[in-house]
Specification:
There is one protein chain. The protein is an alpha+beta fold. It has a single domain, classed as 2-Layer Sandwich (YaeB-like fold). Helices cover 41% and strands 23% of the residues. It is built from 3 helices and 6 strands; from the N terminus they run ββααββββα. The strands form 2 sheets. A 4-stranded antiparallel beta sheet has the order 3-4-5-6. Strands 1-2 form a two-stranded antiparallel sheet. Helix 1 packs across helix 2. It is elongated and about 70 Å long. The relative contact order is 0.11. The mean pLDDT is 86. The structure holds zinc ion.
Length: 132
């Protein structure tokens, strides 16, 4: 039987399902914001700069590349390409469309993220590092 809960919602059962779902969603959002702030901190960009979907994808990829054990692991995630300049041996870049770039390096079994860049910042980084 449907009844009205204290919160004002109508439904069945002992507790209001709608409020439970909303609380779960709030918790998810909170965790998401926390993660997002962590990744922003890690990658060193302002929160407002990166669209949320890009940030989430960057976060996932960033975390998974920390588990890469050899250079071939970059092939596991579609989108990585090897940088070919002789001064950038062991560097890989992941393109998020035209605007964002995630750079990682691989050296003797150690894989680490180098940075998450806007397209412009990436080009600047690239021009500095290609020259060596
Ligand atoms: Zn409710």
């Amino acid at each position: 039987m449907r009844k009205t809960f204290e919160c004002g919602h109508k439904g069945k059962g002992k507790r209001c399902n709608r409020c439970i779902l909303e609380r779960n969603q709030e918790e998810k959002n909170r965790v998401f914001r926390e993660q997002r702030n962590n990744i922003y901190k890690t990658i060193g960009l302002n929160v407002g700069d990166i669209p949320e979907n890009i940030a989430m994808k960057a976060y996932d990829i960033w975390n998974s590349l920390l588990n890469f054990k050899n250079a071939d692991d970059f092939r596991k995630i579609k989108g990585w390409r090897k940088l070919t300049a002789s001064t950038l041996k062991g560097f890989f870049v992941f393109d998020f469309g035209k605007k964002w770039r995630l750079v990682a390096s691989y050296n003797h079994g150690l894989c680490k993220p180098v940075g998450f860049f806007s397209h412009q910042a990436y080009n600047l980084w690239l021009s500095k590092n290609v020259k060596g």
